[in-house]
Amino acid sequence: MFELSGELHHDHLVCLKCGKVVEFEDNVIEQCQKDVAANHDMTLTNHSLYLYGECKDGCTENFK
Description:
Dna Ligase, domain 1; 1 helix; about 20% strand; WH_DNA-bd_sf; DNA-binding transcription factor activity; iron
């Protein structure tokens, strides 16, 4: 998946059935990623996070 740079940072949920993509922000996840990097003596400069699953109530639209 490709996105233009310059956008505010966000992460993604992707439905494996219909291809729907939901963008979200979560400060707890962001801090956790920084903590993991620090625990390994690294400074996080960038990352991407995609969570894959299926729409809970079934797929009502074809996003593919």
